[in-house]
Amino acid sequence: NAGVTQTPKFRILKIGQSMTLQCTQDMNHNYMYWYRQDPGMGLKLIYYSVGAGITDKGEVPNGYNVSRSTTEDFPLRLELAAPSQTSVYFCASSLSRDRGSPLHFGNGTRLTVT
Amino acid sequence: EDKVVQSPLSLVVHEGDTVTLNCSYEVTNFRSLLWYKQEKKAPTFLFMLTSSGIEKKSGRLSSILDKKELFSILNITATQTGDSAIYLCALPVLDKIIFGKGTRLHILP
Question: Hey, how many other C-beta atoms are within 10 angstroms of the C-beta on B38?
């Protein structure tokens, strides 16, 4: 059972470049999330989705975009990379919102913008 | 504003010590509180707490929730170097799950 799969694991971008972080899950979870984690810090929510076709902003959405065309996939797009976006990005999914079913995390993407 | 506050942010103890990590919160429509452990990679789930006063236990780790005073504690007894990690507290808020900043725990041999 693959769970939540993120690609790539590492990426270095130049300022102004764009890229898409891929996330896919095979657990048929409706809820999917993108978080970023800066060094020594907790997780900040970028965007989330409650089902295919539905996305919403989290705490720190500026500079990012998402789409959810299928239940399985939830890609995160950076259009004009900035050094402030250097971080580790985690995708997560959960079965439902009832009583906060535990999140299943991918292994993260470490992004450096120089 | 919904918020999750963890303390301390950082803690260094010797192997064998007991530690207590704190998580206080202010959220609308409380449903549950979640604890995660994060070592090198992604956070892994430890506990989900929904009711006050009922201790959840797994080996040397235990956690309890106080819904009246709006906090939870995570206890680790007889700590080992393998307990070194960031411990994260999280709460569902509507369709989101928000995290505290975490407690970075370092166990000295």
Answer: 19
**pLDDT-derived band at B30, boundaries 50, 70, 90:** confident
Q: Residue A24 corresponds to which tokens in the numbers above?
A: 């896919």
- pLDDT tens figures, B63-99: 999 989 999 999 999 999 999 999 999 998 888 889 9
A42 touches chain B (CB under 8 A): yes
Give the strand pairing for A43-51 and A54-57. Answer: antiparallel
Phi-psi region of A63 (alpha: psi -120 to 50; beta: other; left: phi over 0): left
B92 contacts in chain A (CB < 8 Å): 97, 99-100
Does residue A67 contact residue A2 with C-beta atoms inside 8 Å? Answer: no
* B46-66 tens-digit pLDDT: 999 998 888 999 999 999 999
Q: Please give the DSSP secondary-structure letter assigned to residue B25.
A: E
User: How far is the C-alpha of A76 from the C-alpha of A89, rounded, in Å?
Assistant: 10
Distance CA B19, CA B17 (A): 7
Strand-pair partners of B91: B98
Q: In angstroms, rounded to a whole number, what is the distance separating the alpha carbons of residues A83 and A94? A: 30
Residue B18's CB is within 10 A of a number of other CB atoms, namely 11
Are residues B96 and A58, on separate chains, in Cβ contact within 8 Å? yes
pLDDT in tens, A6-21: 999 999 999 999 999 9
